[in-house]
Amino acid sequence: MRFFVYLPLLLSLVVPLVTTRMARWLPPDLAARTATAGAAISAVAYAASLTMLSLTLFDDLPPLSAFDHRSELPRPVPGWLAAFAALALLAGGIRVVADLVRRTWLRRDLRAMGVSRAGIAVADVSEPFAVAVPGRPGHVLVTSGMLRLLDDRERGVMLAHERSHLLRHHHRLVAITGSAAAMNPLLARVPALVAFLVERWADEDAAARTGDRQLVARTVAKASLAARGRNALPVMGLHGSRAVDRVAAMTEPKGPKRWGSLAGIVALAMAQVLATGLAVAEFVAVAGSWLGLVS
After folding, report:
1. Quick check: helix, strand or coil at residue 291?
2. Is residue 48 in some structural domain?
3. How much is the pTM?
4. pLDDT tier at 93 (50, 70, 90 boundaries)?
């Protein structure tokens, strides 16, 4: 085990850079899906590499430890590195569970804020915010403060935006990238990027629904300025990620799409899959050499 087992770890360093570049040139729906897939593949490859490194600890335990002096055996990784990989894998697993628990409790708290009628729950709260609360069924949670803030047309934008989150299942993309970054901290920048992309996606859906991009831009700006303190809520709120950039995207002419930017993230994902496969083959060969002595 000399090279391929480490390659997925090294490639993870490049994923946020390539994903960010890709997101500049693609429609937000395609960019969000691609970024999520890339992060998921990277997290699985990262976990697989750590698992293989961790399993080499068994060569220090009986009965395998009795064969350490055999020079003809392929050498696994140093014991200290295997122990570090095991700790990193355990820490990643704990972070993933903590992230899922946090999301579950937060969703439960949001559902408790109001009773849904016809897919809309109104909370008697003066602070203006509106979020899409996923579930079976999902619904839009909006406060009385937000309803007072927006006029009739802006309320239509708000509902179109939040319903887009529910219809497109944006919470799944957000949860996947959150778990991926929890497992693989090298992906820490990807969840914020996907959060922004799904907001842009919902903005575009709202613009298509209302036929007025300027109205969507005004509504996003208005809601974001009024609800600055609510950024701790899960994505899928009208006031969500990077409002200034979202307003600019609504008001400025659309730039050209560069479909070639997909090539980078696709090539990176394929490289991680290939490296992981080769690392597994190498690990199986090393393990077979050692276990053959026991049998």
Report:
1. helix
2. yes
3. 0.87
4. very high
For residue 60, what pLDDT is reported? 54
User: Which two three-digit tokens encode residue 212?
Assistant: 């007025």
- Distance (Å, whole) CA 125 – CA 190: 32
SS3 content of the chain, % helix, strand, coil (to 5): 70, 5, 25
In a domain, 162, yes or no: yes
**Cβ atoms of residues 139 and 120 within 8 Å:** yes
Q: How many domains does the chain have?
A: 1
Q: What are phi and psi of 259, to 5 degrees?
A: -70, -20
Strand order in the sheet with 120-123: 120-123, 139-143, 130-133
Q: Mind giving me the DSSP string for 161-223?
A: HHHHHHHTTHHHHHHHHHHHHHH-GGGTTHHHHHHHHHHHHHHHHHHHHHS-HHHHHHHHHHH
Closest CA to 264 of 35, 43, 32, 46: 35
Exposed, middle or buried by CB within 10 Å (0-12, 13-18, 19+), for 107?
middle
What residues make up the domain containing 17? 7-294
pLDDT tier at 73, thresholds 50, 70, 90: very low
From 240, 214, 229, select the one nearest 154 (Cα to Cα).
214
Q: CA 97, 98, 100: angle at the middle one, nearest 5? A: 65
Which residue, among 9, 18, 11, has the nearest Cα to 264 in the 3D structure?
18
The C-alpha atoms of residue 178 and residue 250 are separated, in whole angstroms, by 27
222 Cβ contact list (under 8 Å, min separation 6): 149, 150, 154
Mean pLDDT of all residues belonging to the chain: 85
Residue 285 lies inside a defined structural domain of this protein? yes
72 pLDDT above the threshold of 60: no
- Residue-wise pLDDT for 81-91, tens only, equals 888 999 999 99
Strand runs (DSSP E) across the chain, as ranges? 120-123, 130-133, 139-143
**DSSP 8-state symbol, 24:** H
- Is position 247 within any domain? yes
